[in-house]
Automatic annotation (TrEMBL):
Protein name as annotated: Delta-aminolevulinic acid dehydratase
Gene Ontology MF terms: porphobilinogen synthase activity; zinc ion binding
GO biological process: protoporphyrinogen IX biosynthetic process
Reactions catalysed: 2 5-aminolevulinate = porphobilinogen + 2 H2O + H(+)
Naturally occurring in which organism (per UniProt): Candidatus Nitrosocosmicus franklandianus
Family the entry assigns: Belongs to the ALAD family.
Binding site for Zn(2+): C149, C151, C159
Protein keywords: Heme biosynthesis, Lyase, Magnesium, Metal-binding, Porphyrin biosynthesis, Zinc
A Gene Ontology cellular-component term: cytosol
Positions with a binding annotation for Mg(2+): E262
Binding site for 5-aminolevulinate 2: S303, Y342
Pfam family name, one: ALAD
This protein's pathway: Porphyrin-containing compound metabolism; protoporphyrin-IX biosynthesis; coproporphyrinogen-III from 5-aminolevulinate: step 1/4
Length: 354
């Protein structure tokens, strides 16, 4: 082989050398004939080679249950999303079951609040009574997840017990554990502590186990950011802080290594499922958690993500169904096993219509 031919051969090899890493070790001369558009030429072919598939069974619908109302109340910041009474929510869950959604997560809004959030662990509280009603109506047809936090129950709107202007971490986790136990005893399948207090998962696990609730799962809000995307939720749950913000306990979204430490901590404390929140702005964290742990990964597509798509769709700037399908597929593609989304019911309807 002439020097020029050797040079040309070496250049061609280098051009496609990256393919060796993917197992392509022979016939480099064939690669210029590749046309990836062949994989997209018809709807049937695109379906055949689709790599990431959403299912209604991937989805969890968040539900706001408000004490003291008789009819559903639409949330101003989240058009199409409602606060339900413990009675009216039964119809909503029946629709979930009919669309093959497997799980809901409950957020309670009590009639009365105090500075210690005592109603959060009241056995006759709004979440506890709703759990019993769901279980009576649906048995094990739906997985019941409950949010375990104090922000909806405290008069000051923070996620913990306040002394002065500071949250007492250890007194707060005592209350969170009592709340989780009351949910488990009412019939919840999974309790999800979201207050971002140090040691909350361990405290809850210990109390559940001591009270014969060893089969109740814990979904840790393992990497929950101090995010602007939570704002519509605070309207929905009446949980805006009366002073300050939540940056002393929710995470700085600039710190992915700290997120990894939070995730590791929840694993060591006994979490069964790990959650990343918000979802779309943390796809990197979802991916990292997926490849670096063996735990199921949940991702919460939060209220702000819903409201942005809804607002744009209402102004006819985007196609709503296409936008939610694309965004939820991205979350699944990043590594989430389950996706909590206010669009869960609509997404399930889209998937069932195919």
């Amino acid at each position: 082989m002439s020097r020029q031919n050797k040079k040309n051969s070496k250049t061609k090899l280098n051009k496609y050398s990256w393919l060796v890493d993917f197992g392509y070790q022979q016939s480099y001369n064939l690669f210029p004939k590749m046309r990836l558009r062949r994989l997209r030429k018809s709807s049937a072919i695109r379906d055949l080679f689709q790599e990431t598939r959403l299912s209604p069974k991937d989805l969890v619908l968040p539900l706001f249950i408000q004490e003291g109302i008789d009819s559903n109340v639409e949330i101003d910041a989240m058009p199409g999303i409602f606060r339900f009474s413990p009675k009216t929510v039964i119809q909503e869950i029946e629709e979930c079951v009919n669309t093959k959604i497997c799980a809901v997560i409950l957020f309670g809004l009590p009639k009365k609040k105090d500075s210690f959030g005592r109603r959060s662990y009241d056995n006759k509280g709004v979440v506890q009574q709703t759990i019993k009603s769901i279980r009576d109506n649906f048995g094990d047809k739906i997985v019941i997840i409950t949010d375990v936090c104090l922000c909806q129950y405290t008069s000051h709107g923070h996620c913990g017990i306040i002394y002065g202007n500071q949250i007492d971490n250890d007194k707060t986790i005592d209350t969170l554990a009592k709340t989780a136990l009351s949910h488990a005893e009412a019939g919840a399948d999974i309790v999800a502590p979201s207050a971002m207090m140090d040691g909350q998962v361990r405290k809850i696990r210990d109390l559940l186990d001591k009270n014969s609730c060893t089969n109740t799962l814990i979904m840790g809000y393992s990497a929950k950011q101090a995010s602007s995307f939570f704002s519509p939720f605070r309207d929905a749950a009446h949980s805006k802080p009366g002073f300050g913000d939540r940056k002393t306990y929710q995470m700085d979204y600039s710190n992915p290594r700290e997120a990894s430490r939070e995730i590791k901590s929840d694993i060591e404390e006994g979490a069964d499922v790990l959650m990343i929140k918000p979802a779309l702005s943390n796809l990197d964290l979802i991916y990292e958690a997926k490849i670096n742990t063996l735990h199921p990964i949940a991702a919460y597509s939060v209220s702000g993500e819903y409201s942005m798509i809804k607002a744009a769709a209402m102004n006819q700037w985007i196609d709503e169904d296409q936008a939610i399908t694309e965004s939820l597929t991205a979350i699944k593609r990043a590594g989430a096993n389950i996706i909590i989304s206010y669009y869960a019911k609509r997404m399930a309807e889209i998937l069932n219509s195919k």
